[in-house]
Amino acid sequence: MSPLKIKKGSTSHSAYNLRPNFSDVIERHTLAVLVENEPGVLARVIGLFSGRGYNIDSLTVAEVDHTGHLSRITIVTSGTPQVIEQIKAQLGRIVPVHEVHDLTVEGPSVERELAMFKVTGTGDKRVEALRLADIFRANVVDSTLETFVFEITGAPDKIDAFAELMRPLGLTDVARTGVAALPRGN
Amino acid sequence: MTRKMTGAKMIVQALIDQGVDTIFGYPGGAVLPIYDEVFQQNSIKHVLVRHEQGAVHAAEGYARSTGKPGVVLVTSGPGATNAVTGLTDALMDSIPLVVLTGQVPTFMIGSDAFQEADTVGITRPCTKHNWLVKETDKLSGVLHEAFHVATSGRPGPVLIDIPKDVQFATGTYTPKKPSVSHYQPPVKGDMNAITELVEAIETAKRPVFYTGGGVINSGPAASQLLRELVEATGFPITSTLMGLGCYPASGDKWLGMLGMHGLYQANMAMHDCDLMINVGARFDDRITGVVDMFSPKSKKAHIDIDPSSINKIIRVDIPIIGDVGHVLEDLLKVWKSRGRKTNSEAMAKWWKKIDAWRSIDCLKFEQKGKIIKPQYALSRLEALTKKYDRYICTEVGQHQMWAAQYLDFEAPNRWMTSGGLGTMGYGFPASIGVQMAHPDALVINVAGEASWLMNMQEMGTAMQYGLPVKQFILNNERLGMVRQWQELLHGERYSQSWSESLPDFVKLAEAFGAKGILCSDPDDLDDAIMEMLTYDGPVIFDCLVEKHENCFPMIPSGKAHNDMMLAGVDTQGVIDAKGSVLV
Ligand SMILES: Cc1cc2nc3c(=O)[nH]c(=O)nc-3n(C[C@H](O)[C@H](O)[C@H](O)COP(=O)(O)OP(=O)(O)OC[C@H]3O[C@@H](n4cnc5c(N)ncnc54)[C@H](O)[C@@H]3O)c2cc1C
Ligand SMILES: Cc1ncc(C[n+]2csc(CCOP(=O)(O)OP(=O)(O)O)c2C)c(N)n1
User: Fold this and answer.
1) DSSP string of A108-123?
2) ipTM for the complex shown
3) Structure-derived torsion over alpha carbons of residues B328, B330, B336, B340, reported in degrees to the nearest 10
4) Residue with CA closest to ligand 1 atom 23
5) Closest-approaching ligand to the CA atom of B256
6) Does B481 qualify as catalytic in the annotation?
7) For chain B, first and last CA: distance in Å?
8) Which of A9, A20, A89 is nearest residue B308 as measured by Cβ atoms?
9) Out of B128, B164, B299, B515, which one is annotated catalytic?
10) Fewest CB within a 10 Å sphere: which of A25, A84, B96, B538?
11) Does the C-beta of B154 come closer than 6 Å to ligand 1?
12) Does the predicted model carry a pTM greater than 0.80?
């Protein structure tokens, strides 16, 4: 299956090679959507997902090109290949959307997420938390006598793993940014 | 040339620059500055409707019958919310509209001000795009962009919400210029895909064209090319409800409409074909029925301008993204250059099969006794209006399906109906919009009495503007389509599906100063229809018809195309539990 790259304004664009296999396998895809940075654009994207019953596993958004008024939305979603193709095509229909990229199929990409964990405890548990944080290369960004706030960056898997380890050690709060992703190389 | 002017003046100026001649609207506090400008000019006619829903449907009728975008002007709050049904209707049926709404002044937005509603929020899912304009300097740019978005690619309704202070303030007007928008959907199809389709056409043994509203959206030239292609290949052609008129009903390749209430030969051909060429249709569930059983033996090609229509419901083998007109032009060129080949031997066999299906004559009915059958009423209407270049609108229900079955369309843009949303109350205001665009044409709205009552206030509009729209009401005193489903699905328990306390339609017409005609006897029907046609003004024709007539053929929910119910069948226990959850 080749990707459907929807780039507006190009006439070479074709869905000729678009041959999704209608399988039932649920796939997880990371989509990068370049949008005009105008009011309501995020509501349009989110409304599309809720209105059509698609999943959002994570979503991040920020302006990336101030002069060009472009924001980049990174969406992690899951669905059958047919649903993923629909999501991309539906995103492409939104008027202020400039480009839709499926980073999962367009070649290798890197994904990163930032998370903060508050761990509350004393004694051995507190020491163990600090030791594990070190192994995971998490930084302590705040501490009191009974709490640490760790900051960790990495692929979502790594953050999930860290969260699992912290849970029995007194994990009380988590804040995650959601995934930011870019294709590797050129 | 850029000029300074108020926001309100810019709006009127932009409409003039865009070639708008008619707008449909209703005033209110938040659009008073715009109405003041409307008052002070003569280029644009304003049609004062009686309800904002009527304004949007009228604009839809105007748009569908002309190919130009329809324009609506309504006030904030209730004006905007009343427009929502029409916007959704236009979105579902790909009708280009530009809707202007007033908004409370920018400094009051968010304060629950009088007649404030979050119009862009409410209409985001039911417009192709919408804008809230907070600066007068940006207004003219947005207005021109709105027309571009509404009419490019897959057409649809757009909305511009304009706060009152933005209307009063002065800013710079920029005239219409070639679009600089990044929104430029491609219209040319991929040549490799087109060539692949040509190869399939050359060898197909049992091909069928499955055409739809996209052909109408593409414009009259696309219909012309389609006709050329059908004549040249000799392939049979069917169409959805939305595509009627893209190929003439009098053409010998015409199979009639397909789908749930489509013709037997059309559905059988779709089921048994080996090559399905979808031209601007979207595999709606009224067409496919249960997708697993949909046309199992065919290779499928799909020409559509919207990539999201491709593989949404039915997986296709040859997707071609592009405008119908452009793609058909290239397709014909390639096919001709390769020697205009088709498999004529196989085609002769295929036509034999089709003719056998045709001979079932699935629309036959018998008019006996003293009660008018709705099918008879429409057959007579067809016979007596055939010679006119007429425009037909409908409401929603059984009468709509009978109109699609028994009226013949020879040209595009002559058939206005609410397909995707199925909005009762669409037809009457739509007929007003059509008549505004074609003042001298015969415009008929085929209606059910229940649907018609939903927007009957527009009688006032028809009278005020002297629009001789003919309201042809098939009055079965029932919510007929609902009643039919209750007969099929719910053991004939007719819960709330009858029309009680109906008005005397003749007196109702007279109360508005229009003409009313009542007809209940089949022997009087022709004369009554002639009376309607010759009267110069709006007519309400109350045609009392058989109350419990069912609309056939019908593919019951959960069944395949080759499993149709024809007239005269037993209606009990046809739909199983699995089918009954489908709508
Ligand atoms: C009570 C009721 C019963 C119904 N029963 C039936 C029935 O029996 N049979 C039936 O056919 N319908 C029926 N309908 C209508 C049905 O619900 C759909 O509205 C209709 O089938 C859709 O028509 P379409 O596929 O032509 O698509 P449309 O809604 O007209 O969509 C047009 C398609 O063409 C594409 N397009 C637009 N412009 C272009 C262009 N320039 N170039 C290329 N592509 C373009 C669009 O992207 C879209 O995919 C019924 C409706 C009601 C209310
Ligand atoms: C606004 C709206 N409400 C409800 C429906 C559901 N509905 C579909 S057909 C129908 C009955 C229409 O009755 P009528 O207009 O008399 O037409 P008939 O079917 O009798 O020809 C109803 C209630 C609808 N389509 N639209």
Assistant:
1) -EEEEEEEEEEEE--H
2) 0.93
3) -40
4) B242
5) 1
6) yes
7) 54
8) A89
9) B164
10) A25
11) yes
12) yes
